[in-house]
Design brief:
The complex is a heterotrimer. By secondary structure, chain A is mostly helical. Helices cover 67% and strands 0% of the residues of chain A. Chain A is globular and about 60 Å long. Chain B is mostly helical. Chain B has a single domain, classed as Helix Hairpins (Orthogonal Bundle), CATH 1.10.287.3510. Helix content of chain B is 76%, strand content 0%. Chain B has helices spanning 2-30, 34-55, 68-73, 84-115, 120-129. By secondary structure, chain C is an all-alpha fold. Chain C has one domain. Helix content of chain C is 81%, strand content 0%. The longest helix of chain C has 25 residues, at 50-74. The chains are: A mainly alpha, B mainly alpha, C mainly alpha. At the A-B interface, helix 1, helix 2, helix 3, helix 4 and helix 9 of A face helix 1 and helix 4 of B.
Chain lengths: 251, 130, 81
Amino acid sequence: MKVFAFCLVFVTGVMLVMTAQDFPAWGDAHSAPNQYLSTYYIQHTYRDTAVPNIVTAVLADYRGFDTMFETSVIFCAGLGIAAILSFGPRNPKRRKRLGLPPSAEGDLIIQTTTRLLIPVTQLFALYVIAHGHHSPGGGFQGGVILAASFILLSLAYDLNMALSRLSDRLALLWGNGGLLIYAGIGLICVALGAHFLEYSALHAILPATDSVMARSHAMLGVEIGVGFTVMSMLFSIYTQLVSLGSLEDGL
Amino acid sequence: MTDLMEFVVSRFNYWIYVVLMMIGLYAMISKRNYVKKLIGMTIFQTSIILFYVSIGVKSNATIPIVDHHDVVHSEILVDHYANPLPHVLMLTAIVVGVATLGVGLAVIEKIYRQHGTIEEPELLADVDQT
Amino acid sequence: MIWQFDLYILVLLVVTAIVSLRVRDLLSAAMVSGVYSLLMCLLWAEMGAVDVAFTEAAVGAGLSTVFMIATILRTTRRTTD
């Protein structure tokens, strides 16, 4: 099996290396992928949306539909993991539980450091979400950092401590809420007579904006929704994985 | 000699991506441990993401955040900014990738709870027995 | 983008990928795959893809390593290959 796998992989690799000759040279500014669509984004993004970070603008505005369903993929993954681990028959005879030390006491130094660190982490995450228009960042990164702060709490204390701050039910609600914020902004655009997720129509209801700034503000709302969903779903995945779906004892 | 050097410099990236991708593929096919298989899948995935990102690289270009000064005082030069499109596509791919990795790990835990092993031959023997 | 720097990180990437697959302790394998993700993040930052590098630093080097360690804790860390 190993020899067969090696031969297969080797032949595939040689063929791929041979096709690599047809690719444009590395760093070629005039290669085909750098020519058509991306030049439009680079030249028009700032004029269209007043957002300097092109990546955020394309993510939340031009390709908003794509991002909405990527977010729902994460939501579905969280639900799927809860479904896989929580239900189904258990086989108690074969179940070799790993003997965790009885609810670890917790180290004073680690706990104090964590208590000081978590507010800073969460503040940074909020900054990353809110400032994603002007610097690297956005809903995905900020949501992941928020989830990491809850996981850090769970590692330094125990799972129940983290779950008392963000319970499983609440995490599901946040995840739902994030997606609803995203889809809701799209539906408001429809109600105002524009297409789904066509943010420029929102200037009719946002005070003191024109159709360019409306896109920038709507992007912030969308990023907040993405941040909620990513945070709650990744934390939910962690709690399910670490407690074998029981949400009782874990790290 | 300099021609050869130039050729290698402009192509060696793609060769190493292929090597990384093949390491991941080999691990997915031949490793017997499921966690190792998932690590192989992660390597395969990141090598493809790396390929996409490197398509957008332009020499002497900066990060894709528009300089305010450029907008007000002069024209935006396309060659001056890296191609943002692959970055957008791959950013979401990474986050979705960790969610699917979570699903894979949940399946592994479920297998361990039911069969007491995460090695493929032992699992097959256990399935045959029952 | 400096191709010498690029080559150096790419070689390290191949080495960490092989090590994470060959090591017989799953906990070490998870840690080395975290190192792999961090090197990948460096490479992307060097290519100018700052948003992607940021995501990879938070997701690949942080969360996916934690997920793997959680699974290993709940299953077993010994393996034969």
